Amino acid sequence: MPRVTEEHRERRRRQILDAARSCFARKGFHETSLQDIFKESGLSAGAVYRYFRSKDELIGAIAARSQPLVAALLEEILGEEELPPLDEIVARFAHGVIERMGPSGVVRIAPQAWALAMYNPTIHVAIGGLLGDVRLWWTRVAERLRDEGRLPPDCDPKAVAIVLTSIIPGLILQRLLLGEDADVETTRAGLHALLAVDQRPVEGSAL
Amino acid sequence: MPRVTEEHRERRRRQILDAARSCFARKGFHETSLQDIFKESGLSAGAVYRYFRSKDELIGAIAARSQPLVAALLEEILGEEELPPLDEIVARFAHGVIERMGPSGVVRIAPQAWALAMYNPTIHVAIGGLLGDVRLWWTRVAERLRDEGRLPPDCDPKAVAIVLTSIIPGLILQRLLLGEDADVETTRAGLHALLAVDQRPVEGSAL
Amino acid sequence: MPRVTEEHRERRRRQILDAARSCFARKGFHETSLQDIFKESGLSAGAVYRYFRSKDELIGAIAARSQPLVAALLEEILGEEELPPLDEIVARFAHGVIERMGPSGVVRIAPQAWALAMYNPTIHVAIGGLLGDVRLWWTRVAERLRDEGRLPPDCDPKAVAIVLTSIIPGLILQRLLLGEDADVETTRAGLHALLAVDQRPVEGSAL
Amino acid sequence: MPRVTEEHRERRRRQILDAARSCFARKGFHETSLQDIFKESGLSAGAVYRYFRSKDELIGAIAARSQPLVAALLEEILGEEELPPLDEIVARFAHGVIERMGPSGVVRIAPQAWALAMYNPTIHVAIGGLLGDVRLWWTRVAERLRDEGRLPPDCDPKAVAIVLTSIIPGLILQRLLLGEDADVETTRAGLHALLAVDQRPVEGSAL
DNA sequence: CATGAATGAGGCTTCATTCAT
DNA sequence: GATGAATGAAGCCTCATTCAT
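The joint structure predicted for all components is written out below.
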């Protein structure tokens, strides 16, 4: 009985989270009422409240759910012995996010979560953690690149990571607001061109 | 009287918009009630409604306001004859956004606006336009870089622009969610290191 | 100067009342805001308030305005020596109300006023007075008809008046809700047929 | 459970409608706030909104409710084989409306509904339908009277119906605005006197 | 476990009215 | 006399949440 119950509970949780994610992707957090989620999930208010104590907790659970997905993705990308070229790494990451996580609506939810994270501690922890993990991962990548001599030996891996971490959110934003011109291949090509840039010496920054 | 009145109206508009921006930066769009804005602006409901017909219109006006600011910034950056190095351009842009627009709270509002733009047509136009302008500007920059031989002659300027356009939003996000480690100088340094990356040939992408 | 001023005041009053009547006929009392009337009249809030101390007073003034119109109409109808046939009297009354007062929108305002009269003392006085006058007039008509032998000598003129008083409001209602089938000629014909009705003796009412 | 629930829902609907009708009769549609209805019904805002989606819908439901009542009344009046005298028919109708429907407040609501019907499509349909039904019924009555030789063979039943349809609304109005002098018996007497009127020939209408 | 009716605080907005200019 | 910006109470309605069944 405990096993059955536990399975049942888990199935219910998923059922609710899927419904919520779908609503959130379609209408946004704030325009989605719990009534919408009740309807979408086919469950009653009481049932949903048995599994999640508030709307915030529901949002938090959805936000939290992408952490393992992203973690798995990151691990997978670096699974190989040798580090692929940087544009390839970014492309794989983008591909994972857009092609694999995208269809479930997570990508559409991302900007909602970023916005909410600024004022909601729970979401802040979830999203900040996710972004922090990604940046840490890029820092490790930068270190390896530096150690392999593919980045200047005196470079700051964290600084490099900050730039690289920017790309995926920026790409998501462009896809959602400007359309799907901003795709994985284009990003790779753009990055590839950039990495070959002729960095001419400058004698003094204007800043 | 007409002139005075017009000035007065304009002052009121600003007064309301400043109050709203301040509230939105502090609490976010959705947690800010109109009552908050009435209080912050020192005006009554009716007075605010004389200038803006709804909360949405107020948000839209604030979103629309950053377009000229950003346009001016972009124009200013490229004022000089010769194109500065790319990391310098990015740094100037980031500096303008963070140091000049930041204090008024616009930067904190940005993610709210990105999120809202996905479901609110008016905001979509405003924010999409802004982001589109920026990308177009980067496209022009990329063309010049290519023409000056600082990017590969066969590169796609738009692809480059997509990557470069990503950086500022990604940076904003990191600042807001992970803290001010992600600053202008670090970004410049990271980008500088990247642009010198040793792009080793790869015999086949995994994608 | 006093003369000029008085004329001016009177012109303003009319200007406001006409605008108000027009709005009320178009949208109803409650859906018409004072702002609507300011716009329609081309005057400012302050100007209107100089002439009428409240929306209610404005409505009251409009209601009061029809009293002399109706009084004149009634007097005119009975101007002749001999009383016309009853269906003719009703037809003239209906004609006066619908054709002469109708175009200004008064007829469309009537049901609004009836409704308001039930809860607003000022309007109650105005509309009740009007309806009472009409009924009193019909009572006089019934008395004359009885005295001329065209109604049974033992009939109650007031009872007759109550029935006759009903016809015009009922006609207005039908015109407004069911359309203009209910016109003056049809009413006259219907009444004419009824007045010739074969009143067969009944031995006991079911009431 | 289903049966119980359905009954429960129906009871709630009635509870709300009764409360609303009572408020509306007391204060009129516009002076009655939803808060008044919540208080009168003993329910909360949310509860009322579960059953009626807006104040308009509530008003519409009340308006719609009188249609079957009136229909039943009309059917009942003509239940017998032979047509009673016309004044008797009118008296029965008036009696039904005033004595049976009156106490619930419907009669006091009628003028409100007439006024609203002019600008509110839903109410227009409800009230227009009601009035149209009544007029149609009177048309049938007039046809029978004509066929029985109690109205001129060449008369227009619809014209007769228009006059007869006027009486009840006109009576309601007089009761509400001038007091209860205008009662069923007086109306019957007045009509009785009228139907015996000496319709003297006229050589030309003044219209 | 599940249901769904009920709660009620609080949000956005309107509009009659006032008053400094 | 006239203007029209400003006021602020009050209205309608939504929705996260609770709880009796």
